[in-house]
Amino acid sequence: MSKQLSQEEKTQLVKAVHSAVNHSDKRKRKTITQACKDLGLARSNYNRWLGAVKKNIKETGEAVVPSPKSRAPKKNGMALSADVRQRIEDMARSGLYANPSQIGKALREEGISVSDNAVRNNLETVGLYGHRTVQGSDGKPIKKKVILR
After folding, report:
1. Basic and acidic residues compositional bias: what residue ranges (predicted)?
2. Which of 15, 30, 134, 145 lies at 20 to 30 Å from 61 by C-alpha?
3. Could you tell me the CATH number of the domain that includes residue 101?
């Protein structure tokens, strides 16, 4: 199981490999692969960290491995705006629409780009869409997903 290394530990490993490869005594010099192996470091990690160090030297003048930037999205790019969410709720409460696909179709006709699933998810979140027991044609109760008013 691997552990996360800090910036300082990564920088120290890069420096250790660099010093082993560029040893003053030619007989004690190692290849990059051998130096990485001796330190228990993957060559690919060394190359990635070395590139980051070189880039950081150019940008800031410091020979350290910069902390990684989060690759997680800052916000959902497809999230509905507050006014669109409010419009969906108002349309559902109006009683003119029987299901989320009708609301989605009406919004698209107005020029608002929204999927039927986004409409359904928004309605479920605010509690306007869910199961209701209705009477079937044979008189037996059945569960059906409907817009709740």
Report:
1. 1-12
2. 30
3. 1.10.10
Asked if residue 72 is part of any domain, the answer here is no
**What values do phi and psi take at 147, rounded to 5?**
-75, 125
N-terminal to C-terminal alpha carbon distance within the chain: 52
Q: Is residue 66 part of a domain?
A: no
- The tokens for 83 are 């006014």
- Could you list the residue range(s) of the whole structural domain that residue 98 is in? 82-147
- Residue 51 CA to residue 44 CA, distance in Å, equals 11
Backbone angles phi, psi at 64, to 5 degrees: -135, 155
Q: What is the pTM of this model?
A: 0.48
The pLDDT tens digits for 97-144 are: 989 999 999 999 999 999 999 999 999 999 999 988 988 899 999 998
Which residues are 135's β-sheet partners?
141
Q: Which of 86, 118, 127 is nearest to 100 (CA)?
A: 118
Cβ contact 47:35 at 8 Å = no
Counts for the chain of helices (H) and strands (E), in that order: 6, 2
